[in-house]
Design brief:
Oligomer: single chain
Strand order of the largest sheet: 1-6-5-4-3-2
Number of helices: 3
Radius of gyration: 13 Å
Order of helices and strands: EHHEEEEEH
Number of domains: 1
Largest sheet: 6 strands, antiparallel
Amino acid sequence: MTTTTHPAFEIPTDTGRDLDPGQLLRQMNPGTLLAVSGGRWRRIGISSIGFPCGAGYEVLVTLEADDTYTVRRLFKRGARVFLHGERSNVYCDEVSEVVYFCSCFRSYSADEWPSQV
């Protein structure tokens, strides 16, 4: 488990690619967005969007330079941020499913996420 400091949690949120939030939200299933965060999201840097899941967890989606996504499960407590799992090389047609499994922190372990590298 990695401990870092908020807001520059040493997790790259700016990869040089400008993430269009509307495009990512269109690639996600609307039901998934509602199930994960109740429709809430926030921009974190130029390349990342965060979806708050509740109980201190957040799903961070980052657009990488090779036009794939990296999806991370973060746990926040005060000023500390813990990385609880990560999937990289997630394609646009998989991002909805990976974000959903990432948000199910009580039901799924990091080994059960789809799109394992």
